[in-house]
Design brief:
heterodimer; A: mainly beta; 7-stranded mixed beta sheet; 4-stranded antiparallel beta sheet; B: mainly beta; globular
Chain lengths: 118, 111
């Protein structure tokens, strides 16, 4: 149980285009989902916290107009990288908190999406 | 601010030996600690956790030790296998309830 999927697993796009990444909880409902960014050989950095039916909360330094997050249902959150630039190339990982559990740190991680902007 | 650091970015061990990966944290009020394993190109995988009211917790081939006095956390892997090769992160629950990750230690297992 507690499986989180991401789609696509990797994507290459041209500068200036937008890319949407999906995060799904497959066998549980997720009130809260989290989006992380990871550069090569570095740690995970939290970008934003996404709550179903409300606006996402972004971490300091993360541009909300550039990284659009939508959490329209209890099993799906999307991250859209708008007007992508090469510096947006990174590994994006989502995690989800089981609605049935009340502990924010009990998160289940997706497999990640590798974004390359050319 | 709150931070989590690791002592060694890389660790190389012989297959069958024990591995010890260390982590230090800054917030003495931290209550919950987690170790994750991340294989190349994949998301983090939960290994083991420990609460601040414990000093030691054991799982299958893994043991986590917590020293609150010096704010130090370690992960011990017994009889390390090639499949254990990965990057290991410790994470601490921050004051906001979020996860704060350490920088990671890359474990390489030599056959």
């Amino acid at each position: 149980g507690a499986v989180v999927s991401q789609h696509p697993s990797w994507v290459i796009c041209k500068s200036g285009t937008s890319v949407k990444i999906e995060c799904r909880s497959l066998d549980f409902q997720a009130t809260t989902m989290f989006w992380y960014r990871q550069f090569p050989k570095q740690s995970l950095m939290l970008m934003a916290t996404s709550n179903e039916g409300s606006k996402a909360t972004y971490e300091q330094g993360v541009e909300k107009d550039k990284f659009l997050i939508n959490h329209a249902s209890l099993t799906l959150s999307t991250l859209t990288v708008t007007s992508a630039h090469p510096e947006d190339s990174s590994f994006y990982i989502c995690s989800a908190q089981d609605r049935g559990r009340n502990l924010i740190y009990e998160q289940y991680f997706g497999p990640g999406t590798r974004l390359t902007v050319t | 601010g709150e931070s989590v650091g690791l002592h060694l970015p890389t660790l190389s061990v012989q297959e069958g030996d024990n591995s010890i990966i260390n982590c230090a944290y800054s917030n003495s009020a931290s209550d919950y600690f987690i170790w994750y394993k991340q294989e190349s190109g994949k998301g983090p995988q939960f290994i083991i956790d420990i609460r601040s009211n414990m000093d030691k917790r054991q799982g299958q081939r893994v043991t986590v030790l917590l020293n609150k006095t010096v704010k130090h956390l370690s992960l011990q892997i017994a009889a390390t296998q090639p499949g254990d090769s990965a990057v290991y992160f410790c994470a601490v629950v921050g004051s906001q309830g979020n996860l704060i990750f350490g920088k990671g230690t890359k474990l390489s297992v030599k056959p």
